[in-house]
TrEMBL record:
<dbReference type="Pfam" id="PF00400">
    <property type="entry name" value="WD40"/>
</dbReference>
<dbReference type="InterPro" id="IPR001680">
    <property type="entry name" value="WD40_rpt"/>
</dbReference>
<feature type="repeat" description="WD">
    <location>
        <begin position="141"/>
        <end position="182"/>
    </location>
</feature>
<dbReference type="InterPro" id="IPR020472">
    <property type="entry name" value="WD40_PAC1"/>
</dbReference>
<dbReference type="InterPro" id="IPR026962">
    <property type="entry name" value="KTNB1"/>
</dbReference>
<dbReference type="InterPro" id="IPR019775">
    <property type="entry name" value="WD40_repeat_CS"/>
</dbReference>
<protein>
    <recommendedName>
        <fullName>Katanin p80 WD40 repeat-containing subunit B1</fullName>
    </recommendedName>
</protein>
<keyword id="KW-0206">Cytoskeleton</keyword>
<dbReference type="Pfam" id="PF13925">
    <property type="entry name" value="Katanin_con80"/>
</dbReference>
<comment type="similarity">
    <text>Belongs to the WD repeat KATNB1 family.</text>
</comment>
<keyword id="KW-0132">Cell division</keyword>
<feature type="domain" description="Katanin p80 subunit C-terminal">
    <location>
        <begin position="533"/>
        <end position="688"/>
    </location>
</feature>
<dbReference type="InterPro" id="IPR015943">
    <property type="entry name" value="WD40/YVTN_repeat-like_dom_sf"/>
</dbReference>
<keyword id="KW-0963">Cytoplasm</keyword>
<keyword id="KW-0853">WD repeat</keyword>
<feature type="compositionally biased region" description="Basic and acidic residues">
    <location>
        <begin position="388"/>
        <end position="414"/>
    </location>
</feature>
<feature type="repeat" description="WD">
    <location>
        <begin position="59"/>
        <end position="100"/>
    </location>
</feature>
Length: 692
């Protein structure tokens, strides 16, 4: 019998509605792989236990959407950054104590009020404050002027690093409640921050296409890693060696040697922008969460060990626990979690395995070479043995706590939504109290489905093999799991009763013949006419759009970009302009100053239409590429004599400057919006600050 077609184990674990509004950020606890924190446009931070349907804790206090969250390594602290630039740090252990004491405190407050009313006369007021409810928030950190895009906890010291859309990186002492140091060097939003495993360095990735490495002790930049041609979304340190990985929207992953400060290798051809990467705990490979797939890479030389199909869309974060990789993705208000069985994933070697695998038990992975190619991080022997040394600002630059911050912290609350799940995560039953429990069972394989049952029943298999197939959507993409427990032998052979008629007889022989009219085969024209029924208006719109695009394409083939744009604008159809801009935006070298004079009036229309995203992208490209040139030319003193080319360039700059001034008011009025569009408008407002 032929071997069934199976691939790697990967399945969807659950899908939950995480917030009342859109989810804007999330993070997995890396130590346990079981704790999930989500931030939403409802200004809340919710905590979840993976594979549990109910929220176990909800943290409030922010007054604007939460756009970045992060858990520390022991999963005892959580930090969240908001759209307004404020940062809040919660102590989950303190929150546990506060919430557990709420019932007793509420009872005390109730009895206090009741006793005052009954025991004391109204003319004799009681002196002293009433009992109050404690707040679980540890710190409120203020200082950034725009959205918080990235956060990270120091692995040993009590520090938090924050990166913002204002291009600044700040290091905070969460116990002393102040900014320790500010790192400047990026020219656009800082999208990702990571501390090195030994806690001495900080890596940052930004929209300016660069990765920077900062020395915390010296308080300065050690090295800058150029090479990406798009915004860098994520950076990750190797767990042992002096190696750094970075993923970008240019669909590449680059590996950087932190001893020689040079690129080691570059992996190209990712199916989409790289948003999430994670090293294996032993450092043998790198996992990349791609669009609907997990890819496993090596870097010396660069190669792909394996590809696992996972229908998780755009995965947002990854974690590893019990030889399982957990991935989470969000869309609007929903969050979905997925599991990949790493025992069936090739993590070392030089050649990616054949997807046609048999149903044998997972083979042991080859041991990783014990001798590293690079220097290894020297971690402290104990976390409290020596405090982390970092460069600090002067006392005048450090912000002291204010009464307003104290009031904000008192207004923060921790609400337990589900006590059973909360106790399971934060109150383990073992003797050592630990949050969350470090040892947890792997997620069980999904139950057997009917289709897989029929296939397995149709083939003879040894009695000792017990098969657990995958869900219906992935029957052909998951290998069976074999256990060492023998299945009980049947006393007698069982014939599956799949027939509904006597053996040897055909029921059709005893029934009158029924003539089934054969349906005439549809030709393409008839099929298209049936599809178009009820869509006449849309067909007219699409036909007109296609005709207009053909006109623009005929001019485009001549190589005159400016004339092509002029023809698209003359058609007076924004959809045609959008289609053309989506092509021009992919190649910045096509942009010229005279092109800006034609496009800017159209961008102003796009920002007030349904094509906001395309308008923001085009305006951002113009500001980054031409605004410094425009301001420099306008500020230059007049020259002696006649220079025709300079006069033409000066005229174009004046036209562009006037149009940008007109657009800046519109951008400023829309910078208060929430969600993705609001974030884009705030970034544009920062870029246009020099126009004010």
């Amino acid at each position: 019998m032929a071997t069934p077609v199976v691939t790697k184990t990967a399945w969807k674990l659950q899908e939950i509605v995480a917030h009342a509004s859109n989810v804007s950020s999330l993070v997995l606890g890396k130590a346990s792989g079981r704790l999930l924190a989500t931030g939403g446009d409802d200004c809340r931070v919710n905590l979840w236990s993976i594979n549990k349907p109910n929220c176990i804790m909800s943290l409030t206090g922010h007054t604007s959407p939460v756009e970045s969250v992060r858990l520390n390594t022991p999963e005892e602290l959580i930090v969240a950054g908001s759209q307004s630039g404020s940062i809040r740090v919660w102590d989950l252990e303190a929150a546990k104590k506060v919430v557990h004491s709420l019932k007793s405190q509420m009872l005390v407050v109730h009895k206090w009020s009741q006793w005052k009313e009954e025991a004391l006369p109204h003319s004799c007021p009681l002196q002293g404050p009433e009992p109050s409810v404690l707040s679980p928030v540890l710190r409120t950190l203020m200082g950034h002027k725009a959205n918080i895009c990235s956060l990270d906890f120091h692995p040993y010291g009590e520090f938090v690093a924050s990166g913002s859309q204002d291009t600044n990186i700040k290091l905070w002492d969460i116990r002393r409640k102040g900014c320790v140091f500010r790192y400047r060097g990026h020219s656009q939003a800082v999208r990702c921050l990571r501390f090195s495993p030994d806690g001495k360095w900080l890596a940052s990735a930004a929209d300016d296409h660069t990765v920077k490495l900062w020395d915390l002790t010296a308080g300065k930049m050690m090295s800058e890693f150029p090479g990406h041609t798009g915004p860098v979304n994520v950076v990750e340190f190797h767990p042992n060696e002096y190696l750094l990985a970075s993923g970008s929207s240019d669909r590449t992953i680059r590996f950087w040697d932190l001893e020689k400060f040079q690129v080691v290798s570059c992996i190209e051809g990712e199916p989409g922008p790289v948003r999430s990467v994670l090293f294996n705990p032993d450092g043998c490979c790198l996992y990349s969460g791609c669009q609907d797939s997990l890819r496993v890479y090596g870097w010396e030389p660069e190669r792909c060990f394996d590809v696992v199909l996972v229908n998780w869309g755009k995965v947002a974060d990854l974690a590893i626990c019990n030889d399982q990789l957990i991935g989470v993705a969000f869309s609007q208000s929903s969050v979905s979690s997925y599991v990949v069985d790493l025992t069936r994933v090739t993590r070392t070697g030089t050649v990616a395995p054949d997807p046609m695998q048999d149903s044998r038990p997972p083979a042991q992975q080859p041991p990783h070479p014990s001798a590293p190619l690079r220097r290894i991080y020297e971690r402290p022997s104990a976390t409290g043995s020596e405090p982390q040394r970092v460069k600090q600002n002067s006392e005048s630059e450090r912000r002291s706590p204010s009464s307003e911050d104290d009031r904000d912290e008192r207004e923060s609350r921790a609400e337990i939504q589900n006590a059973e799940d909360y106790n399971e995560i934060f109150q383990p039953k073992n003797s050592i109290s630990r949050t969350p429990p470090r040892r947890s069972e792997p997620f069980p394989a999904p139950p057997e489905d009917d289709m897989a049952t029929a296939k397995e029943a149709a083939k003879p298999s040894p009695a000792t093999d017990v098969q657990f197939p995958v869900p219906k959507l992935e029957v052909l993409s998951r290998p069976p799991v074999v256990t060492s427990t023998p299945a009980p032998k049947a006393e007698s052979p069982i014939i599956p009763a799949t027939r509904n008629e006597p053996i040897g007889l055909k029921a059709s022989d005893f029934l009158p013949a029924v003539k089934i009219p054969q349906q005439a085969e549809l030709v393409d024209e008839d099929a298209m006419s049936q599809i178009r029924k009820g869509h006449d208006t849309m067909c007219v719109v699409l036909t007109s759009r296609h005709k207009n695009l053909d006109t623009v394409r005929a001019v485009w083939t001549t190589g005159d970009i400016k004339t092509s744009v002029d023809s698209a604008v003359a058609i007076n159809d924004l959809s045609v302009v959008v289609d053309l801009l989506n092509i021009v935006n992919q190649k910045a070298s096509l942009w010229k100053l005279d092109l800006c004079t034609t496009i800017l009036p159209q961008i102003e229309k796009l920002l007030q239409s349904n094509y906001v995203q395309t308008g923001c992208t085009s305006l951002k490209l113009i500001l980054q590429r031409f605004l410094p040139l425009i301001t420099d030319i306008l500020a230059a003193p007049p020259t002696v004599g006649v220079d025709i080319s300079r006069e033409e360039r000066l005229h174009k700059c004046r036209v562009c400057y006037k149009q940008l001034r007109s657009i800046s008011g519109l951008v400023k009025s829309k910078s208060g919006l929430s969600g993705r569009h609001g974030s884009a408008f705030r970034e544009l407002h920062l870029l246009m600050a020099s126009l004010d």
